[in-house]
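Appendix B, record 7
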Amino acid sequence: MSEDEARAWVVERFGPDASGKLERLTAIVIEEAAGQNLIAPSTVASIWSRHVVDSLQLVDFAPTDGAWLDIGTGGGFPGLAVAVVRDTAVHLVEPRRRRAAFLEAAAAVMGLPHVVVHASRVEQVAARAGTISARAVGPIAALVKAARHVASRDTVWLLPRGRIGSEELAALPQYARVFHVEQSLTDSDSQIVVLRGVSGR
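Structure tokens (predicted):
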């Protein structure tokens, strides 16, 4: 997907107002990335396809209500991008203090009062979520174990990664075995694990 195609996809799916806000988000991220490693330098020129659309494709798999909790938000993806197009609470979990400070500042500048930043590991977060996302953050089994307490059986987990190995899926605990795999829009070598029915603690 080219950058022009990515921008057109956003306008078609979410409208020109959201596209304008996301343009601002990308500018903020690129400016900050000069001082801290928010996104890989090699992806700056393809930020719309590699980060914006890659994040927003998750929205179609999520319930429309309930809070969204994003683990390891880093430079704002997918959490801040999702917050642009959704009005429900969006919790950004980022243990690195400098990145968490950036996320708080970016949410304030962009006028996103429904964003809550947690400068901690997900194990210390007390929120409850209808959707949990984590973009290439650790093995899925470890991630589910760490975040299980913020989920209910109705929570949808959206976990984008590269090509999923059968051994990683086989390692999922018995309480996290209801899932399917979607193909990423932006990368033929990437997939999204959509997990449901995880029993909370």
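Remarks on this record: Residues 56-196 form a domain with the Rossmann fold fold (CATH 3.40.50.150). The chain has a mean pLDDT of 89.
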